[in-house]
Amino acid sequence: MTFEVLLNQVIGETLTVSICRFGPELIVSATILVLLLNRLFGIDRWVAPYWTTLIGCMIALGYATNQYLLLQQGTLPAGEYFTGLMMFDGFTVFLRIFLLLFLILVTVLTVLSGIPDLEDGPDFYTLLLGSTIGMMIMSGANHLLMLFIGIEMTSVPSYAMVGFLKGRRQSSEAALKYVVYGAGAAGVMLYGISLIAGMLGTGDMPLIAERIGQLTGTASNFESPLVRTLMLAIVMVFVGLSFKLSLVPFHFWCPDAFEGASAEVAGYLSVASKAAAFGLLIRFCLALTGTIEGAASSPIYLFLGLAIGFVAMVTATFGNLAAYAQTNVKRLLAYSTIAHAGYMLMAVAAMMVLLNAPSGAGLTSFERQELAAKSIEGLLFYLVVYLFMNLGAFAIVALIRNEIYSEEISDYKGLARQTPVLCVCMVICLVSLIGIPPMAGFFGKLFVFASVFQSAKVHWAMWVVFLVGAINTVFSLYYYLQVLKTMFLDERPEGARTIDIPLNPSGWYVIFVTAPLLLLILCTEQLTQTARTVAAGLFL
Amino acid sequence: MSDIVLLTSIIFTPTIGSIVLLLFHPKSEESMKNWGLFVTAVTFVLTLFLLKDFDSTQAGMQFTSTIPWIPHWGVNYQLGVDGISLPLVLLTSLISMLAMMASWSITKQVKGYLMLFLLLETGMLGVFMALDFFLFYVFWEVMLLPMYFLIGIWGGPRKEYAAIKFFLYTLVGGVLMFIAMLMFYFGSADSSQGILPTFDLLRLAEIGQGLVPGVTFSPTVQSIAFVLLFIGFAIKLPSLPFHTWLPDAHVEAPTPISMILAGVLLKMGGYGILRIAFPLCPYGAQWGAYALVLIGVVSILYGAFAAMAQTDFKRLVAYSSVSHMGYVLVGMAVWTIGADGVTVGRDYWVQGMNAAMFQMLGHGISSAGMFFIVGVIYDRVHHRDLNKFGGLAGLMPLYTGFAAGLFFAGLGLPGLCGFIGEVFVTLSAWNYSKLLAVFVASGVILTAGYILWTIQRVFFGPEYKGPHPEALTQMNGREIAIASVLLFFAVVLGVFPNTMFSLMGASMEQLVSAMDIGYQNAVQTVNDIQTTMLK
What we know:
The structure holds 2 protein chains of 2 kinds. By secondary structure, chain A is mainly α. Chain A has a domain at 297-540. Chain A has 20 helices and 2 strands. Chain A has helices at 3-21, 23-40, 49-73, 90-113, 121-140, 144-162, 169-200, 205-216, 225-245, 253-260, 263-289, 299-323, 329-355, 365-404, 415-418, 420-434, 440-455, 461-488, 505-519, 524-537, and strands at residues 79-81, 86-88. In chain A, helix 4 (90-113) runs parallel beside helix 14 (365-404), helix 7 (169-200) packs across helix 10 and helix 17 (440-455) runs antiparallel to helix 18. The longest helix of chain A is centred in the last third of the chain and has 40 residues, at 365-404. The radius of gyration of chain A is 23 Å and the shape is globular. Chain A starts with a helix and ends with a helix. By secondary structure, chain B is mainly alpha-helical. Chain B has a domain at 288-504. In chain B, helix 3 runs parallel beside helix 15. The interface between A and B is medium-sized, with 32 and 34 residues.
């Protein structure tokens, strides 16, 4: 095969297959260009930047939805593209739709809350769109290189967005902390990636499991130095991902960054970057164990699964306990985000443990995959619910800030009398975060805990994870209720700023975002079905 | 009307009523209260339809109906009533209606109050009708939030503390129940035989009783699950040592909410034990029977002594609830297994179960009545200090009459509703353990002691010397109506206890048989395992 033939083949594949599969990302990229050109020629004086953003996102969302439908029909086959750098399957498209939908909701929120102003609009939306492209790449990464590029493309615009409130010292400080921490984590992760790629001779994720098998051969325990080095490399990659997921002990940036950033940006980071990082984590874990029928279940990965479970347990507990001491709503929500990352990570731990169940556990390889898929199904469900409850909470914080110029919990006293709509929606969001039925958060928790429960049959340590997770529900109750107590039970002090958000567009927006938390009980089945199809697609 | 429509409309009429309240103008308080009363009255009438079509000779579930909800997880919207749940459904809708009538004293944020009240009623009715564990759990937890706000916003001086304490305690119980629920759910499946997991309480009960070939809950699972469930329900019941939320919550809650708490919410603990903990783990129930009786006896005595020591009128009534609900626990658990492994004195146990159930109904009437009586006087003089009362009999003779009637019902005077439950529980306890029966019986005397002493301190004596003596006016028409309805039921249940016994009898009989069989099957399994191990 001559070089020319190869080149033609690549070009042909790129033009016919890859470009079309990469469509949504390209559309968002084009939107960025339009935004910048609009500013260059002064068109943004007539067409507000958010309109450009919204239209671009909607087109991309439509495209992605179409991709999903075609994928379900089988007209558009799943598979790798860009010569194996990226993966196109139900999981990718599901997360794309998730991220684009979220992007639209956040954009609408920024329009309503007035951050950024018209002058800064193009800059802000460019950053927002840019980081979303990074997240979409994360969710479809099929190569260690794309894993790193995706994370960096997400992170760099996020740093700038955190520091976007230019006049505030706190905001700049938050951005700096975020950058330093992020750069460190990225460095460690890159080192890990280079170790893996160096040892295995490939960065192609589907090949990793097989290569590891060849390399370590029968020596699948920690005696072998090869295995130890490999574990070190894997842990390093996990460090990078843990940073994005704000897992303990890599969570320190999270409360500071959230407090310094505007509530809109904090809401965006708390949901979108979590979702993308979980997508990437799942892909990486599956790359390690391999998903092909009869993939070897290795005690090393079982151990890894338990380690993830331990981190999840500690993260959830720490996040909940640390939230008690907070007086700032955004910091409180930041710790709540950490705790929720812990809950969701439990599903990943359950997946790893179930996939690598020793033969003594009495599970066939088919059952192992079935149960592992169910864990991911639970996680995806949780993510969807999490989008609405967290965005709702942050949106309410942003809208209230616009009226009372404060994000301190003590300034929320007696708000329920003045703005019942926002406060009732806050109840729904926070109660959903606690996980009390009938709010949708309960269903997400149930599905995740159910898979952890299943994995406890494989290894007793998962019992501990399960019990700690369940008890954490009680831990979390108090600090969420503290916010509600301040809003509803306390009297508004004399002379406090009044707030008046009637059923204007802001009010309707909040209702629109929180309504799914109640309505989801009517269509839980449809969502679980979708999540199940998507999750099962990973194991084909 | 088809069954599913009837049951669903009973549960969700209050919800719809609560949504309709949104349309009212916030200033039109009177019409909103009327609407709330109308909705609860409609719900009560709907439950009477249930009573009309109920066949009390039939032991099993009636009006059953199932709609798939999350088929992928085996969750169904499954409803039904039997002789155990029907009386409680009636009690709930009745007490809700009366508590709504008592809500005229609420003047703050009326719209929010009424909406939460109606949502609470939906949760309560749903718990008593759900036949799917998942659905049961959802309704169980749905009540938490309205209750938190009802106590927290409209409560007394220490309302915040009381509300959060109530929430935390109940949520801990909920989490324990959640763990047990998952244990049953995954235990009910066997993938090698293609048996899918289920949340269906009736099927789970069959599995627990060892009636389904292929799957069973092992004695260990039953014991663990029973402890988890029991703690969850004991918190609600409440029995020692999980009762400390109750005096706070009951005292701080506004009068109508205290009526609901004492009249209905406490019954959920007992109902949960009868509907879930007992039938799903008969082995666990027998294993823990002595502990249950003991906890019950301690609750009776502790509650009575604590009540005697109170100077706050409402706190006294609250502790009397702890004492009275102890009888429920004793009555349920008097299950003796003889040396030959067969139930001894089965009829006494059936009697105890029936008495426990009756005690729940009787207490539902009498405690709601007592809280209402306290509320009436508190509305007038704004204090509840027993030592500052006295001489009310001369000032408010009608009120004194109602109060005496309802307090005697709580005391267990023959001819009133409290007597039947207490006396039958004591009788069945005698068969179980003579020593414990002595303590149970002495509880009756203590009860008489603190109630008579209370009546003496509040109503008798030369004159009222407390604050606001000018406010001691006669009861108004609304208050008379509530009190007379409660007194009416207290007398009817006391004189014709068979109205209720005939409703619940068949179902109780069946429950006892099922648990008996379930225990034998579980013991059989244990023996089989031991035999195989010996071989």
